[in-house]
Amino acid sequence: MLAGMITVRAWAAVIPLLCSALLSNPLRAEPPKLPGVGAALQEQVDRNEIAGAVTMVVTRDQVRHLETSGFADLAARKPMHPDTVFWIASMTKPITATAVLMLQDEGKLDVHDPVAKYLPEFASLKTPSGQPANLTLIQILTHTSGLGEAGGPAEREAKTLADLVPLWLAAPMQFEPGSRWSYCQSGINAASRVVEVVSGMSFDAFLKKRLFQPLGMTSTTFYPGASERARQVTAYAKNTATGSLEAVPPRPEFGPRDRPPQGNGGLYSTAEDYAKFCQMLLGKGTFQEVRYLSEASVKLMSTPQTPATLPTGFFQGDSFGRRGLNYGWALGTCVLKAPHDGVPAMLSPGTFGHGGAWGTQAWVDPVKGVAYVLMV
Description:
- An eight-stranded antiparallel β-sheet has the order 3-2-1-14-13-12-11-10, sandwiched between helices. Strands 4-7 form a two-stranded antiparallel ribbon. A two-stranded antiparallel sheet has the order 5-6.
- Strand 1 and strand 2 (63-73) form a beta hairpin.
- Residues 1-6 have low confidence and may be disordered.
- Helices cover 31% and strands 15% of the residues.
- The chain has two domains: 5-85 and 205-243 and 270-375, Beta-lactamase (3-Layer(aba) Sandwich), CATH 3.40.710.10; 98-201, Methane Monooxygenase Hydroxylase, Chain G, domain 1 (Up-down Bundle), CATH 1.20.58.
- It is an alpha+beta fold and 376 residues long.
- It contains eleven helices and 14 strands.
- Helix 1 runs antiparallel to helix 2 and helix 6 crosses helix 7 (185-199).
């Protein structure tokens, strides 16, 4: 796995092939492979850009492409497999939004409600101007809340999501709610805590019972056991001085059972598992004739809930061409409003999804009726 621009290069190498091949190639024998994708990724492996990868393309009811390249562990020469386990980091966020919306579909909450309705401690939160913050669930799920970030020893010692609540409230608000977009981990974790309060279950137990087990996402978990650990990929970063790939130690705050089930980025999963989640979204809330979300809830995850005039996302600065208005933020996902040069040029307007810090990506293109999953 790799982070940053190395992942972008890997994604850029395969997305044109995935998009174009889908237009002209029928479904092949299992496992189906689209022409050119494996060769493009093998070139990335040979150039020491990535150690290995798993790529998938799915429709709502079919796997159109599944291929592995390179190694899950370079030192052991362990090949990448379809069931290799990755830390998916922020690809957890769409799953967190799904949990919130499942409860809304049941009439147990409303995303327009103030967070304080479910977490009373939030009633005391003040904006930078000294006014009551009155944060809503939509704001914390779209990174427009201005909520401060938790950090320091107390955050590292937290055992539950409830332990984190006072730490979020102790951090100064960043801006007036709704006035800006700023990526906020605390807000997504607050949404996870709301799920616990409303459902009466721990966040990990809720997801396992309501989403992972029914969807067949058997390797998706906050707490990898022996089976998942045996299949877990080794993370790598490129040494720019030597050009070699060097192993990166696991993030200590994610994975141990004495840590909270953090909805901002705590999940481990496989390409095959996450593809099933994407198929549910492609199916407008259904997968294999089982409904998980209403169509209205999927719309909240797939269409911008931020104002059209508000720049969002990670391409707002001069170095990125000020592309903030090309994107909007839905509940838990980034939405491509206007494709531009580079990888987004290959995607349809309305494509939505999320990436992860260590090189995982999943994007759902409703116009083409496909989802792309890349794990590196």
